[in-house]
């Protein structure tokens, strides 16, 4: 939903002009800089570390915290940087999926209503007892300048909701156009399936996979003469 993106599409010129110019900075720790290895053999080239002055607390408008490994240990300096960003006037923190573990470790979830992945709600409550986790019901939720989402693609729904809620950055027609073109943001904030049914469905898929694992694999069967 940026001027840079919408401006290259075959849209009326005034749509692109209304969209904000957005600069995205990829920030990591000095130890990991510049190439950050992800899953699926993907590598992200970071453009800054949290020690750089231009990304110091107060110099950013929005901080997006992506998903991490739930068992990751986070550097104290990284947690302090995120905490200081969160406590800076005018800065919003948007947390997607398991990024909730970094936010929790930084102490910015305490006393807040937080979403987080549906399947990890009990684990999250044990790890962060001072947080009100509502991820059984909500794809995403806002509490002050903190926005949190459930697993992965729920972050897309949260981003659209955030854009609608922040007309100082995005005029409503720009958000609507961006959401339509990318086909996101049309799911309700509340899940249409309760937590018990959610886990029963997971159990059913696990059972199906177990039965299939007992059957001979077709790819291991040779051709018959």
UniProtKB/TrEMBL annotation:
What InterPro entries does the database record attribute to this sequence? Class_I_gatase-like (IPR029062), DJ-1/PfpI (IPR002818), INH-QAR (IPR052158)
Question: What residue stretches are annotated with the DJ-1/PfpI domain?
Answer: 37-162
Superkingdom, according to UniProt? Eukaryota
| Lineage, uppermost ranks | Eukaryota, Fungi, Dikarya, Ascomycota, Pezizomycotina
Name of the protein this chain belongs to: DJ-1/PfpI domain-containing protein
């Amino acid at each position: 939903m940026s001027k840079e993106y919408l401006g290259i599409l075959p849209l009326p010129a005034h749509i692109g002009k209304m969209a904000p110019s957005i600069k995205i900075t990829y920030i990591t720790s000095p130890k990991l800089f510049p190439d950050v290895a992800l899953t699926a053999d993907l590598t992200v080239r970071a453009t800054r570390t949290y020690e750089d002055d231009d990304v110091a607390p107060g110099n950013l408008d929005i901080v997006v915290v992506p998903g991490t490994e739930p068992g990751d240990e986070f550097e104290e300096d990284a947690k302090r940087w995120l905490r200081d960003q969160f406590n800076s006037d005018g800065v919003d923190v948007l947390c997607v999926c398991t990024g909730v573990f970094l936010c929790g470790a930084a102490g910015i979830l305490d006393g807040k209503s937080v979403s987080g992945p549906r399947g990890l709600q009990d684990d999250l409550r044990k790890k962060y007892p001072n947080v009100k986790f509502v991820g059984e019901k909500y794809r995403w939720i806002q509490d002050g300048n903190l926005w949190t989402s459930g697993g992965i693609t729920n972050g897309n729904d949260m981003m659209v909701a955030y854009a609608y809620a922040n007309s100082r950055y995005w005029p409503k027609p720009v958000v609507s156009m961006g959401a339509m073109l990318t086909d996101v943001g049309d799911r309700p904030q509340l899940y249409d399936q309760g937590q018990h049914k959610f886990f029963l469905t997971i159990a059913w898929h696990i059972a199906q996979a177990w039965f299939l694992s007992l059957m001979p694999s077709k790819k291991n069967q040779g051709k018959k003469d």
